[in-house]
Write a structure and sequence with these properties.
By secondary structure, the chain is of the alpha/beta class. The chain contains seven helices and 15 strands. β1 and β2 form a beta hairpin. The chain folds into two domains: 93 residues, Elongation Factor Tu (Ef-tu), domain 3; 164 residues, Nucleotide-binding domain of ferredoxin-NADP reductase (FNR) module (Rossmann fold).
């Protein structure tokens, strides 16, 4: 899919207005960006954009909203910004109505057409829910086209759970099987305790009819993959995002390269079968 906003140059950002800001946790904010002149971002779940703040710099962020979801218009999209790094800190300091630069969308998203008709198992970890949310809401908007929808999600502590209003809605929805855990015991927490890998003990799946998606901490990807493979899910039906490797968005800086792949161009969404033999992929 061709980037929107790129008529003159893939390197030149176009202005976008900060239409809304919502605090999700002490260090996470949800920014709604609005494109000018009726332009549409024309993106798919799993893609990302480059966002720049004048005088500070530019950084890549996964798109958190669904292109099909609810009241969102074609000119608006959402980014979950964790306050890590200069650009993210600058975005946290903005007020509604401010202007930022946007390039994109970039990369290849998740292959939704291969997932329809299947059971979908989501296993986002921590901030990974911000990226997975785009695909989760797209699947829920097309709910009749999928089988079971299972969501496993973890955070360090209850106060770091993202999108708590949506978690509550998914918990009450009869068509979603939601399991949420935090990593340690807290007096105010009555749910599961432990890493996300502990949640796999509470579910059963039909492996041949299940597509799994995991996004999150690089250091725990291998542990989640062990659980998914242990359930018998084929390697080609396990999808993950290597979004922490993306940099310039167009494959020119070389920082996203893994062997013969450029994550900014051929990813960041890959099946495990595509990358399992690539050294240092995960």
């Amino acid at each position: 899919m061709s980037p929107m906003l790129m008529a003159d140059s893939i390197y030149i950002p176009s202005p976008a207005r900060v239409a809304a800001i919502k605090s999700l946790t002490a260090r996470d904010k949800l920014l709604t960006l609005e494109l000018p002149g009726g332009q549409s971002l024309d993106y798919q779940p799993g893609q990302f954009v480059e966002v720049s703040v004048l005088g500070i710099g530019e950084a890549p962020f996964a798109i958190s909203s669904s292109p099909s979801h609810g009241t969102r218009t074609a000119r608006k999209f959402e980014l979950c910004i964790r306050k890590v790094g200069d650009v993210a800190a600058a975005l946290h300091n903005l007020s509604e109505g401010a202007t930022v630069g946007v390039r994109g969308p970039f990369g290849k998203g998740f292959p939704l057409e291969k997932m329809r008709g299947k059971d979908i198992l989501f296993a986002p970890q921590g901030l990974g829910l911000a990226s997975a949310r785009s695909l989760i809401n797209r699947v829920l908007d097309e709910r009749s086209l999928f089988g079971r929808v299972i969501i496993l999600y973890d955070a360090e502590k209850p106060s770091e759970l993202l999108f708590q209003d949506e978690l509550d809605a998914w918990r009450k929805c009869n068509e979603v099987e939601l399991f949420v855990t935090v990593n340690r015991h807290y007096e105010t927490w009555t749910g599961y305790v432990g890493a996300i890998t502990t949640l796999f003990h509470y579910i059963t799946v039909n492996p041949r009819n299940t597509v799994a998606i995991t996004i999150g901490r690089p250091m725990t990807y291998r542990l989640v993959l062990i659980e998914l493979l242990g359930k018998g899910i084929p390697e080609g039906q396990i999808w993950l995002s290597l979004e922490w490797r993306i940099r310039c968005g167009v494959g020119k800086c070389g920082h996203c390269r893994i062997d013969h792949l450029h994550c900014c161009l051929q990813g960041p969404c890959f099946s495990y079968a595509q990358i399992k033999n690539l050294e240092d992929a995960i």
